[in-house]
Amino acid sequence: MSEAVRIGLLGRGTVGGAFHDLLAQRAGAIEAATGRRPEIAGVLRRSEGDIDRLLEEAEIVVEVIGGIDPARDYVLRALEAGRHVVTANKQLIAQFGDELFDAAREAGVQLRFEAAVAGVVPVIRVIQESLAVTEITKVFGIVNGTTNFILSEMASTGATYADTLRRAQELGYAEADPSEDVGGADAAAKMAILARLAFHTPVRLDEVQFQGITEIQPDDISYAKELGLSLKLLGVAERRDGGISVRVFPCFLYPHHPLAPVEGPFNAVMVEAPAITEITMSGPGAGGLETASAVLGDVVSILSGRPAVHAIHEPLEMVRDINSSFYLHLEVADRPGVLAQIADVLGRNEVSVRSVVQRGMGNDARLVMVMHEGPESSFFRALEEIATLEFLRAQPRAIRVIEEEFV
Amino acid sequence: MSEAVRIGLLGRGTVGGAFHDLLAQRAGAIEAATGRRPEIAGVLRRSEGDIDRLLEEAEIVVEVIGGIDPARDYVLRALEAGRHVVTANKQLIAQFGDELFDAAREAGVQLRFEAAVAGVVPVIRVIQESLAVTEITKVFGIVNGTTNFILSEMASTGATYADTLRRAQELGYAEADPSEDVGGADAAAKMAILARLAFHTPVRLDEVQFQGITEIQPDDISYAKELGLSLKLLGVAERRDGGISVRVFPCFLYPHHPLAPVEGPFNAVMVEAPAITEITMSGPGAGGLETASAVLGDVVSILSGRPAVHAIHEPLEMVRDINSSFYLHLEVADRPGVLAQIADVLGRNEVSVRSVVQRGMGNDARLVMVMHEGPESSFFRALEEIATLEFLRAQPRAIRVIEEEFV
């Protein structure tokens, strides 16, 4: 049996609970990847438990209490005691990063915080590792899911800010006191962290200008829609005139902008540099399980020490017949009964039609169909049969369609 | 002076040349990040140079020759000699991964290959590190820039495949012999690598089904456009019925799909798992400098050994007045001269108007304007002046607009 790694958990709310379960569920995979079997050394809640005893027993401390007090004190003591720390706490890193990074450096331990910005979207790792020596010129994006959900909803329903906020609270996308999110302070803390990492410079949170979405009128969104624009709360950190600018503000985007399609509670971050052009990363910005996954990724990185050489766990069989949706293009004779005959072939092969468009007449008649998802083998059987129908004027053309639609 | 790290470079084509220059240009940043100053130990071209001497002198070997022969032999010898290797060679990893990973494991050295899939998009690192213990269910995306450029062009111009291929060749997006790209074999090799890493299973390249874009008709694209669909060459690797499926095929996407807006020579990869929902990453899939950046990221990771605690390099000043484009919403009295007066204020403050829409009449008259980019201080000066105009029926509303449009 491999040596256990004992993890001390600070906080047992939504994220803490999800992390606890995920760690148990992925224990086998963690052992396979790192050679160490994870164990929970103890759990400390905000108001109960003994931090000294937890630090004695834990090798890695995971902080998901949130807020500054007592998280700052606990994390600092953990680092000083030579414990690696993983935290999801953006305010802690944004406000007290200097103190904590110094403590980690002095103790020779790791301080990781992927979950503090954009949830499971790996923007911290990519900036700190993939782009460690890249001269980043700009980092910007949608780093607050609550406001992105509200703005998406306002655009699709035409409802007011106040009504949409209430709906977001009902759905669990906004807190009872939403001011940190909707006022822009949450996004400002995240942008301060990203700017610090991207530009290797200290960023004081009180220097980050921010503006929220509380003043947005449904009018603004609907007029802008006519101009083809969509509204997002953007965080922007960029090099400017030998200095930097770090700001948060609501902003319209033209339709082809990579951030324009990011809707609902999703986050997305773009990084620009001459040597990379740009990288865009997006995904869920919050959620207990997603945040716990980001925390777990950091824990595994600490355990890996250095990246593992790729290892095979088990051979998996290659599956051949899978489900797909298809587009089918048929050039047909323009006469009665053609559609019925094709529909009959499809029906007998259990292929279900989602939409049909008939175009042209006479020598240019065409049927363009999109099918619902089903086994590819059924579709291809139907296709083979259709190809033999005497009223076809050309080989049928079939192309797969991704049917899944996103938020 | 810090200890030098000597890097042996195999190949001096577009990527090799770009890497050579980038390494020199970022030498200071590399030393600051890793404590080691990089030096080129030697360069070996396909047909000239002594591999034994290079291996003696290099600590890290960078392989950007491409192809199997002699790359396979060189990389294997480098690993066996205890040298870390970074390669951009997808065919090498897809076809001979097992052999190479074994050699790296036995020698206790790293084999890194971020640039082999999706260029500078950090999909390898994210799958291997952030998601090392995540049970990934599906990895899919656009992993060939040549075909994505051709399909985007066909959609926007209505031109045939053959004409568009010629244009791609003129622009340098397609090679003189494009068959590996347009036939799907290039994407198949990349998907074999992603499937192997995501599912921790060996994937034989000859088991990956692939289909290219050479048969696509302009018709298919234009009919599909009417249905709101866009055409992409997709690679899909997923768990299915206890096994896996790895395939490459042209495929239509509905407009809200996160991959639908990916156009031109860009790549984008999505990773799905219950614990993360989904992560999408996109960026340039090729380009000498971008590929060299991905290679350099791998070199730096090898030098870091373990992730550095974040270090400040230099304090940067916070810049206040930056350039922006604005949307301006004005409720105005419906009478002659209003637009002229506003235009006059804007003009005197050197704010240039991009578009104007006038809506409503009488008591509901509104002017909605979008400005070209300019100093924010000028705009706010103009805004202050506009707010005092007596024909305004409400406070003006201003929101920033991202003007930049993408491929």
Provide structural commentary.
The structure is a homodimer of 407-residue chains. The first copy, chain A, is built from 14 helices and 16 strands. The first copy, chain A, is of the alpha/beta class and 407 residues long. Chain A has three domains: 4-116, Rossmann fold (3-Layer(aba) Sandwich); 123-285, Dihydrodipicolinate Reductase, domain 2; 323-401, ACT domain (Alpha-Beta Plaits). Chain A has a six-stranded mixed beta sheet. Chain A has a five-stranded parallel beta sheet with strand order 2-1-3-4-5, sandwiched between helices. In chain A, strands 12, 13, 14, 15 and 16 form a five-stranded antiparallel beta sheet that branches. In chain A, helix 7 (145-157) packs across helix 8 and helix 13 packs antiparallel against helix 14 (376-387). The radius of gyration of chain A is 27 Å and the shape is globular. The mean pLDDT of chain A is 91. The interface between A and B is large, with 128 and 127 residues. Strand 9 of chain A pairs parallel with strand 16 of chain B.
